[in-house]
Amino acid sequence: xEPKKIEKNYKQAQECPITIFMEQIGGKWKPVxxxxxxxxxxxxxxxxxxxxxxxxxxxxxxxxxDLEKLQLISRKSYPVIPPKVEYSLTKKGVSLQPLLTDMMxxxxxxxx
Length: 112
Prior knowledge:
Blueprint: H1 17-24, H2 30-40, E1 42-44, H3 45-51, H4 57-69, E2 73-78, E3 84-89, H5 91-94, H6 97-110
Antiparallel strand pairs: 1-3, 2-3
């Protein structure tokens, strides 16, 4: 069986859905944040910070804001002192689970 030929439908790489995905959801931290929320359902900022070695609080805060803007996570804040904020995945965010699972399995098989 021959592989299906991929047609060149995009004049510029920026138009390609894979490029758009990687620009918005790819990178070093966003997939990790999404994966942690898939595993734990709800996490507080400090829990995420402790779970991701090497990320600064400023970077974590920015990544969470970006994911919230993309409607992949939701942020729930409670009016208490000290502030309590919880993060969870939206339905749209949960829809990434099969893709991330496949990427993880592929990585385990082919990358060392």
